Amino acid sequence: MDPQEAQKLAAELEVEMMADMYNRMTSSCHKKCISTRYDTGDLEKGEAVCIDRCVAKYLDIHEQIGKKLTEMSQTDEEAMSKMSQKPGYSCKCFAKMKHILRFPVYANYFVCKKC
């Protein structure tokens, strides 16, 4: 895959992820804040305040999770870089580490007992 194709794919994926987040946020905040009885055509003050807070919390948490995932990804990349630089580090554990790193959440828990 050439770099332009990869960049285009990454941009499409980012748009898809943002649309998914928006849809989940809208659905979640609507269920939480909007009454199932529609007495008026406009939002009531309490509903508007609830939606503002709900959206702010949702976006704040989304940002915190993004930062943590970025941090974990960088840590995993550094660990892989260190492992690949070690001379003779070609044991079975390294192959397992490569497999585990496809799932970065678990990579920090892997420790080679032999090396």
TrEMBL record:
Function: Mitochondrial intermembrane chaperone that participates in the import and insertion of some multi-pass transmembrane proteins into the mitochondrial inner membrane. Also required for the transfer of beta-barrel precursors from the TOM complex to the sorting and assembly machinery (SAM complex) of the outer membrane. Acts as a chaperone-like protein that protects the hydrophobic precursors from aggregation and guide them through the mitochondrial intermembrane space.
Keyword annotations of the record: Chaperone, Disulfide bond, Membrane, Metal-binding, Mitochondrion, Mitochondrion inner membrane, Protein transport, Translocation, Transport, Zinc
Localization annotation: Mitochondrion inner membrane
Entry's free-text remark on domains: The twin CX3C motif contains 4 conserved Cys residues that form 2 disulfide bonds in the mitochondrial intermembrane space.
Assembly and interaction partners: Heterohexamer.
Keyword Zinc-finger among UniProt keywords: no
Gene: TIM10
GO biological process, one term: protein insertion into mitochondrial inner membrane
Cellular component terms per the entry's GO annotation: mitochondrial inner membrane; mitochondrial intermembrane space chaperone complex
Stretches assigned to the Tim10-like domain: 7-71
Family label: Belongs to the small Tim family.
A GO MF term: metal ion binding
Protein name as catalogued: Mitochondrial import inner membrane translocase subunit
Membrane protein topology class: Peripheral membrane protein
